[in-house]
Amino acid sequence: MTEKIIILSDGRSRPLAIPPTHEPPNGEVRDRLDRPLRDLRISITDRCNFRCVYCMPKEVFDKDYPYLPHASLLTFEELARVARVFVSHGVEKIRLTGGEPLLRKNIERLIEMLAELRTVQGKPLDITLTTNGSLLARKAVALRAAGLQRVTVSLDSMDDATFRAMNDVDFAVADVLNGIDAAHAAGLGPIKVNMVVKAGMNEQEILPMARHFKDTPHILRFIEYMDVGASNGWNMKDVIPSAEVVRRISEEMPLVPVDPNYTGETAARWRYADGSGEIGVISSVTQAFCSDCSRVRLSTEGKLYTCLFATHGHDLRALLREGRSDDELAAAVGALWRVRGDRYSELRTINTDGLSRVGERKVEMSYIGG
Question: What average pLDDT does the chain have?
Answer without folding.
Answer: 86
